[in-house]
Amino acid sequence: MREEIARGFYPAFEGRWRRAEIIGRWAMVAFVGASVLGAFGQGLFSEREAANADASIKLRYEPVVRFGAPTKVQFDTRVPPGGDKVAVTMAKGLADHFGLESIIPRPSVWEAGADSIRMEFPVVKGQERVTILFAGSPGFRGSIHLWARLDAGETLPWSQYSVP
Questions:
Q1: Average of pLDDT values for 89-93?
Q2: Which of 30, 39, 63, 144 has the greatest number of CB atoms lying within 10 Å of its CB?
Q3: Which residues pair with 153 in a beta bridge?
Q4: Residue 113 neighbours by CB distance under 10 Å
């Protein structure tokens, strides 16, 4: 072994070093691949879609969000036949923990209850569906369970997980 070290080559060490390099490179490839696919938020497959059984609400959201980073929740709601407004009731956590910053379009009526918020959005006559965009910066860490429903519709639950 002394002769090998003197020549600058120690096979046992070189073999372990090469193995550590290969393991490290595969770990980096796995991390980058998971990031690109959306495992840590905002990747190719990071958005999810959900709808309730009667399809009155369709939802697009990111299941994994970063604390304080801008994100959005998009509702596609059905307008009641002959209606001139859409009323959406949702979990109060959307405003409290989600860091709600803007709602597009603006609600004409906003009522806060003990555990929910009810908003009414004006609708153009003849419109069948309305898209409502909620934008915010999550102010929570960990998991939060949210829900939404139309006045005459089924409740749609979803959850989001915030990472630092």
A1: 87
A2: 144
A3: none
A4: 9
